[in-house]
Amino acid sequence: MQVAMKAATPSSRPPSVRLSREKECADNSMVEPMSPTGRIMEEMGVCIVVVIGLATPVNLPVFRAGIETELITRLPRLRSIQVMDESTNNGKPQWVQTAVNVDDHIVVPRLDPDAVASDPEKAVEDYMASLSLLPMDRRRPLWEFHVLDFPASEAASTVVLRLHHSIGDGTSITTLLMASSRSTADPARVPAMPPPPKRTGPIYQREPRPALSSGDYLALLTWFWSHVVLAWNTLVDVTMIVATILFLSDPHTLFTRADGHDSRSGKRFVHRTLSFDDVKLIKTAMNCTINDVLAGVTSAALSQYYFKKSGDTNTKRICLRSLVLVDTRPVSTRQTYVTRVETGNRLSSLICPFNIALQDDPLEYVREAKRFMHRKKSSLEVLFTRVVGEFLVKNFGVKTGAFIFRRFIKRTSIIFSNALGPVEHMTLCGHPVAFMAPSIYGPPQALTVHYHNYGSDIKVVLAVDDTQFPDCHHLLDGFAEAIRIIKNAAALKTLTTSI
């Protein structure tokens, strides 16, 4: 496949250009320090990719005008470059705003027309796989849109947004797209988001202490015991994190990156549309959260794939672990996402088990997920991971922080994430959006699982090692089969309960 890329040519410049005399004298409002998390993402070379399927062919002048007037005006980092501040001893990187030529950030590749005509989905996949191997031009702001203006099964055309993770996390990029869009049903307003959950604070937040004057000593005892459980779970989780950094790693399975394999090898991105209503049906039947359901579906899909692929008939259960990405922003701010763009990287992580097993009852996958997710809500692991990560970067340098973080996540098997999207279709830069499929590349895992809801659908997006998972579509089929089986079991449970 022939690919001609204008804005994504490799740069011979060093990772960050030096702060020139003119930029040193720039207005302070034009300069922003890079966060510790952003510096780790920079050091590890992690990038975000968002596949956006459009319901119409691309009108390039209209799309370009939308990028210029909507997107880059809302997020200053899209018009900033990374520079090194030589006035400090460590030369810490900063964001410095610069002039942006939008044309430099729009790539219209020339693909093999025969390959596109024979299999457009594979043409998109192959092109995205090539992006994961291609460095970004650091002389410009680290983002670009790639326009693939040909029809595929789910869209009339496709655009791929690629940007460096140091610019922001999934939430900040999602909020940017939401705030820059309009509801397709009502162009006078922005897209609607899901209703807020009951919890509004961090997942580890405890209930306030009851007043002693109420005389409810049972409530006081319950409050005290919840903090004892919080302290114990935190101690256990911190111990597991330290052990993972030092020596503890998952057993070698089909999902583990092969020994000696280059962790920076190409990634293939594949996605499948699932019914969000099916997920909510399971959620209601099991009295759990959307995350619990998706974690259970993932465990079921990986289990089915493992036992079919390996032919293993002796093993009953394999305990693997997943690095679950967590947005540390307050849940109460989610309703402002569509009107106020969140900025930066405010990510943390949890280590959660993913058991590979064949369950007689499909609902047991969700029950197990519910149990370990509930336990993680009574732990300060999220807070600990973020605070320690920032401490390491600030006091020992970004290379030390990135080394420890990479060693930490390399000893787990997969990365798992669930991103919040709108509950209705939207129009972005003058084009109706048919679907969105976000993912990342750069971490050392061979498998990354992302979920993203959009309207009445939810996308499961896999970023897989291109050589380790040549049958990645079979793995993807397992997610659709898993949710079908679990949904049927949940519907039967609901029917049986109601009789």
UniProtKB/TrEMBL annotation:
It catalyses: an acyl-CoA + a 1,2-diacyl-sn-glycerol = a triacyl-sn-glycerol + CoA; a long chain fatty alcohol + a fatty acyl-CoA = a long-chain alcohol wax ester + CoA. Pathway: Lipid metabolism; Glycerolipid metabolism; triacylglycerol biosynthesis. GO terms for molecular function: diacylglycerol O-acyltransferase activity; long-chain-alcohol O-fatty-acyltransferase activity; O-acyltransferase activity. It holds the Pfam family WS_DGAT_cat. It is found in: Cell membrane; Endoplasmic reticulum membrane. One of its GO terms (cellular component) is plasma membrane. The keyword Glycosyltransferase does not apply. Residues 344-487 form the O-acyltransferase WSD1 C-terminal domain. Keywords: Acyltransferase, Endoplasmic reticulum, Transferase. Residues 1-31, 184-206 are annotated as: Disordered. In the N-terminal section; belongs to the long-chain O-acyltransferase family. This is Diacylglycerol O-acyltransferase. It comes from Hordeum vulgare subsp. vulgare (Domesticated barley).
